[in-house]
């Protein structure tokens, strides 16, 4: 490791292990596959949250358009799955067999050129990463090189999310329109709709999630992570220390986009379809709220935020469908006003010190007790 | 007056520099030259354009016309970070340090290595970095505060930290904007001592109001008034210049 201090400090290690035990052991053993699949769906938003922690929490770049990248990842995966589900035998009743059903319904008679590469699984996997990375690179370069930042950047990302939705809905023949891309069946010949597949996909997703947590933690601990924090506070000082601030912002934005896209691709696999309702303004803002509730400075907080808020959303929107959005808004306001560091801040400021005091009183006079220098995340 | 000198001989050659904000010329056809290892102090009444001159040199503000040559390199065409990499360091008037980072991390960020995105991802805190950071920390009286977060420091300590961040960059031209402003008497004395030590082996451009401090350090003084040079020379010469007395020192 090129990192000098320990990779996780004590409280981060506890957070890492607690999350691992919950996701790898407790949840798979205690809930049925339907609920586990719901958890898997919630966790896809945790990927977005991890990206937002880097980009927003550390870099201070608020993006209200993460749904775009979530969607790009999800659509790339969905295009591959859809092509596999639209084999000539499966679609022989169509006027043009071998193309996705929604294209046939829209009088399209041949596969559009940008769909063709998605016949290949490796290409699709690469596209899941590269398409959002390149798109975010273009947006980032256009904005940050011109020093567009802060609230203006947030508004522009929101506009991009709106444009993306309109584009997808409007180009029904190429994108599946408002319904999205549905009726997905197999991944490289492997049926993703069975319970067994759902178990496997759940574990694949959790492993990927931990991969992303480690990657984000790695970035956070390098000098680049410290430059992000520095940039958030004193952009000019970073510039006059010889750094190109724009390039660092572009990096943070691209990293967040790639994390979101991985989440989106897993979403398609877990839920079995992808639609513009996960791309637009509302889902993008919800993603920011999950991160804010969990704690925008904490990678683990973002995961907990995604899990808890989505769990609340499912339970509450079943019983009070009209009230849910008000509840979500109130939650966001409450968090911003009272707990700017979210659940992880509450943990670090109120719960952790109590546990420490409790432990300290149980083992008095432990002479070689060394407190962690870094603040708990 | 400057006949016989080629601009190349100077570390910094500012000529015909003009910047106008909506028609108001904050700096108007300004020319001056700084030699290697020269300590130059810029004084002048409020609104004379002193800070704007530093902003122009370090790229924070773009010149409307004119040229700034640093070792033969035209700075007006470079971006801020490229100007820093060329060897120009700038300290701002209000202390600008990274409050959520420790003193060590503040200094480390200014260490001139791994300044690209990829370079900062692979940057290693090796012995050379640690040694240099400790060396500078000692110079700026913060050796025992290396692990303190910068928001815990006093105003004076923050100023020192920012001076330290410039030192670690090891610039050939150091620009300081009122380095002793807002400091207590004892901090002021310590800062003067610190500045006297760090200005060796490099050229320094200082804006300062504290006349005693100016007299102590300046090789040459430039008096700005309404964006133009009113007088230039030794402190003695400037002090006795009737024009200067009229607009500045006399009041």
From TrEMBL, chain A:
Q: Which InterPro entries match?
A: ABC_transp_permease, ABC_transptr_urea_perm_UrtC, LivM-like
Q: Name one Pfam family in it.
A: BPD_transp_2
| Membrane topology note | Multi-pass membrane protein
Has UniProt tagged this entry with the keyword Membrane? yes
Which is a Gene Ontology cellular component entry for this protein? Answer: plasma membrane
Annotated GO molecular function terms are: branched-chain amino acid transmembrane transporter activity
Q: Does the keyword Transmembrane helix apply?
A: yes
Sorted alphabetically, the keyword list is: Cell membrane, Membrane, Transmembrane, Transmembrane helix
Subcellular location(s): the record lists: Cell membrane
- What is this protein's name? Urea ABC transporter permease subunit UrtC
From TrEMBL, chain B:
Q: Indicate yes or no for the key word Chloroplast.
A: no
Which one Pfam family would you cite for this protein? ABC_tran
Query: Which InterPro entries does the record cross-reference, listed alphabetically?
Result: ABC_AA/LPS_Transport, ABC_transporter-like_ATP-bd, ABC_transptr_urea_ATP-bd_UrtD, BCA_ABC_TP_C, P-loop_NTPase
Q: Ranges for the ABC transporter domain? A: 12-251
Gene Ontology molecular function: ATP binding; ATP hydrolysis activity
Q: Which GO terms describe its cellular component?
A: plasma membrane
PROSITE patterns recorded: ABC_TRANSPORTER_2
Q: What is the top-level taxon of the source organism?
A: Bacteria
* Alphabetic keyword roster: ATP-binding, Nucleotide-binding, Transport
Look up keyword ATP-binding and say if it applies: yes
In Swiss-Prot or TrEMBL terms, this protein is called Urea ABC transporter ATP-binding protein UrtD
